[in-house]
Amino acid sequence: MTDLAWLLTALTMGLLGGTHCVGMCGGLSGAFTFALPADQRQGWRLLAWQLVFNSGRLLTYTLLGLVAGVLLADLQNLGPMKKIIPITAGVFMILMGAYMAGWFAALAQIERLGGPLWRALAPLRQRLFPVRHPGHALAAGMIWGLLPCGLVYSAMTLAITRADPAQSALVMLAFGLGTLPTLLLTGTAAGQIKRLLQRPATRKTAGLLIILFGLWTLLGTQLHGGHQHAGQSSGKSAEHEAAMNHAEHGSAHHH
């Protein structure tokens, strides 16, 4: 898959993951709203504050992608890992889709792995409330980005399939931008939207689509591997043919 395809996959996963975001982040987004002064909780002022909160969240996602890219880029140079990492990303997306649809809850256990860090950050979160200026809001949003979430973990597995830290960061940014519409609506108390996203049919549809993206990721990995193998075989055939021609030419010259 091209780099653009990876970015579109991450963006779409974020958009489809809105049903999960409402459940995971809806309460926190609402808490940020109530942490604002009363005169800032309406209209464009509330929207502006929510944009600052979410900018902090997207900044954390981007930094996580960058760090993962720096730490894990060398893994891409290890032969078997070139296939294992994309396959892991595809499988993780399939599991995430099944989790969102309510068909398979294994990722709930993985989400709990981040619980200790989230609890350790509780004193810092409390120190930022009430929110008095945009710096507080940005810092609170950056902490929000560390909330244990299977959807974020799925995006991270997608990000580390890129062999370049900048591309890993861009994948995570694209994913964050995909989640933005839902969380802005949640933060501004769009009750009807929340109810729509939480309907079982909506969650199942979104989960199924993410499963399809996971399958597409797996298929792309296999096709890329097949083309690479074919290219290598073609290269070897060309080298063999050149060697044979050289041998024949040398033999004719000798005679």
From TrEMBL:
Residues 9-216 form the Urease accessory protein UreH-like transmembrane domain. Residues 227-236 have a biased composition (Low complexity). Residues 237-255 have a biased composition (Basic and acidic residues). It comes from the Bacteria. The chain crosses the membrane at residues 51-72, 84-106, 137-158, 170-193, 205-223. Residues 227-255 are annotated as: Disordered. Keywords: Membrane, Transmembrane, Transmembrane helix. This is Urease accessory protein UreH-like transmembrane domain-containing protein. It comes from Paraperlucidibaca baekdonensis.
